[in-house]
Amino acid sequence: MPAVICPVCGKGKARRRCPALEQQICAVCCGTKRLVQIQCPSDCAWLASAREHPPAIILRRQERDLGLVLHVMRDLSERQSTLLFLIFDGLLRYEPPELQPLVDDDVAEAADALAATFETAARGIIYEHRPASLAAERLVSALAPLVDEAGKGSGSSFERDAAVVLRRLADAVGHVRAGEPDNRCALLELVGRVIRTDQRAPRILGPDGQPTGESA
User: Can you tell me the distance from the alpha carbon of 141 to that of 7, in angstroms, rounded to the nearest whole number?
Assistant: First the structure.
């Protein structure tokens, strides 16, 4: 019988039964898209096996992911780091319009526009900077309320922190994409591997940079 081609990548031989997709997929997609693009059920045998005995390629990817995240977080304060992960969580929860998937360039453009808005606000000027593309503008509309809520009542110190974090996020797109130049979602996939959308939302930060006890 002819080999069945993986419906996910369209290249590999589909030899693994995927309970999430209810069809056969290739081993590569099973290993690399697990819990990132494929929402594996907790009773998946392949998931359980991978957690108990992660292959060398997964360990190397985890080490690389950790290095990339540490590079993005370099020199950030505790409040800035918490805000960065809040934005990461927002990126994962964001649902773009059908047939218009979000890509890294949209993230960079949206982050730059939001950073400019907060930089202007920190100088006492209210002006909303808008990105050029519609996809980035939609993302700004989703992320802005999230960041605003996190810094409610914190004043210009939070606005400066938010600008630093958003500029760092925009720069991270180029840094991560340098290792995967053909992958337009390299940063988004990295975020998906280090953050899980079912985790509890980060706490809102008060003026002193400490959690207020409320959930974002």
Answer: 34
